[in-house]
Amino acid sequence: MARRTKRVGILTAGGDSPGLNAAIRGFGKTAIGHYGMELFGFRDGVTGLVENRYLALDGAALSGILTVGGTILGTSRDKVHRFPVEGGGTQDMVPTVVENYRALGLDALIMLGGGGTAKNAMRLVDAGLNVVHLPKTIDNDIAETDTTFGFATATEIATDAVDRVHSTAHSHHRIILTEIMGHRAGWLTLAAGIAGGADIILIPEIPYTVESVAETIKARTARGSSFSVVAVAEGARDVDDTADYQAAQLLVKAAKTPEAQRAARTHLANVEDQQREHSFRLARELEAATGLESRVTILGYVQRGGTPCAADRLLATRLGAAAADHVARGEFGVMIAARGEGTAAVPLGDVAGKVKLVPPDHAWITAARQVGTGLGD
Ligand code: F6P
């Protein structure tokens, strides 16, 4: 008996990232055109999976989306095991997702997303679904992959911003802090800071002291440069704030009962709240310590918006196409990682729940130090 056509679902979850549509297209064109599969796109990430909202994707739907930013499917940050329900509270929706997957007769589900999505994907693998995950995020913080799509585009955008603040900082003899995304990882700030020639780069992996940052600026002033550009990661903190945050994180990990977990999560959220606007605080502290006027530019969502750069289109296309190969061969429960110019299928268990931070001895850090960039330590 002829094997019936394979049916595959696809979704995009977490923060949007340039290259999502290129990956949908890369997977879809290979799955439909090369392997003759049927493709269904779930709307708004895990939300569409739970609510069974999907559309059939054909060649026409995949045409013209390679260069388009965002995601044609929509996205959300919902978690499959703690899904918000009417009247407040959350519910474990894994059984509902399994039901929807079976009812549609799916053979596989492709989940494009970051760290949170890898965890959702793992939960669905544990429930018996055939899942393949593709690593996207501008933060580049996913374990076991060389890089993630979205990162190259965001690096271009943030580098351009660091370039541009130079002339205004120089003209006004100011310190300009440019706050760059990246969640709790410093990849994006480090890359854009180096490429944009920031004088100081502050990342979460290297807690800073205001004294050290101020010393670097004063040394520049003494050499005749009466301005400084600081690339500061949204997750960068001084030594004390880093200790408070890490202690709050440990409490969450150590909490055993649901009440203790709730209390620990509330405490962590409070600590995070207190540390918001840290770039503005640092600007005030630097102004006081150096006598130079200071300003803050928060790049925000421009870093994730708009058309993907060529490198992200290429990466997303090859990861998407490789994912279709794995589905065709019946290999599931993996993330398709970028490895050099090729790809590798990594068990999701090696990825979910892990964060790839910048190692202190990373070559980019060494290079930054060698060219005289201050790292705040
Ligand atoms: O993970 C991508 C990212 O843009 C992070 O750099 C940032 O911390 C976060 O998402 C912002 O999240 P949201 O889109 O929920 O505001």
Strand order within the widest beta sheet:
3-2-1-6-7-12-13
Order of helices and strands: EHEHEHEEHEHEHEHEHEHHHEHEEH
Number of strands: 13
CATH topology tier name of the largest domain = Rossmann fold
User: What would the principal axes of the Cα set say about the shape?
Assistant: globular
Bound molecules: 6-O-phosphono-beta-D-fructofuranose
User: Architecture of the largest domain, according to CATH?
Assistant: 3-Layer(aba) Sandwich
The helix fraction, in percent, is 40-55%
Described by strand count, sense and barrel closure, the largest sheet is: 7 strands, mixed
Count of distinct structural domains: 2
The helix tally amounts to 13
Which runs of at least 5 residues are low in confidence (pLDDT < 50)? none
β-strand amount: 15-25%
